[in-house]
Amino acid sequence: MKRTMTGMAIALLAVVGIGHMACADELDDIRKAGKIRIAIDLGVPPYGMTDEKLQPTGLDVETAQALAKDWGLQFEHVPTTGASRIPSLQTGKADLVISSLSYTAERAKVIDFSLGYAVLRTVIAAPKSVNVKSLADLDGKTVATVRGTTHDTQLTKEGPKGMKLVRYEDDATEAQAFLSGQVDIFSTAEMIVPQIDKKNPARQVEMKFVLDNFKLAIGVRKGEKRLLDEVNKWIVANIKNGRLNALNKKYFGDDLPDLILKQEVSQ
Length: 267
Prior knowledge:
The chain is of the alpha/beta class. 40% of the residues lie in helices and 25% in strands. The chain contains 11 helices and 10 strands. The strands form 2 sheets. It has an 8-stranded mixed beta sheet with strand order 4-1-5-10-6-9-7-8, sandwiched between helices. Strands 2-3 form a two-stranded antiparallel sheet. Strand 2 and strand 3 (56-57) form a beta hairpin. The longest helix is centred in the first third of the chain and has 21 residues, at 2-22.
């Protein structure tokens, strides 16, 4: 009997120990490791892309590198796509997501969001010859989108019943589908449209109308409050010192909008 009770006690301690480990604070784990793993999609220029030496660069990459440096940590890039950004957090592959990720109520159920550090405008684009000016005009049309993005979600909810959505895994694949003539109308981030036009001017692609404006935030695993608080402190500090605004000017040629800049006032 004594041995049986001892066995039960050991089993109980094991369960308690496992539970304690599962509740370990991620910020402490990151500091202990001396590095921070950040998921960034390199297929969404100028947020994430590669330079002439095939090294990661872009607004999201520089933001991630700056955060890691300020925290005294080694930056580790975790490759991702639009659809795998949130799963990379949930499965523990990444500590943070800085990858043109905008807040939605659905996403907020499974991950936490920081304050905004940048903005993204989503649009419908098509060749000049295609006459579409609103969501209603997409009725009966085939429209390409990138799986798991905010524009995918919006078109799914708000698009006309007669619209057919074709989903691609990333922006590069969607762009190639348009350039090769597989699709004529597609949803994307505004800054990608001129890049597609440069690759095939004969297609005469242009922005048709704006879907929405989004505040881009840093994704944090659900419940990691200390980590989220530190991320928010970093964002506020880098709005105040002008670093985030300088990055926006570098990649977009203008200042951050009040949507981002006014956040520091409420802190």
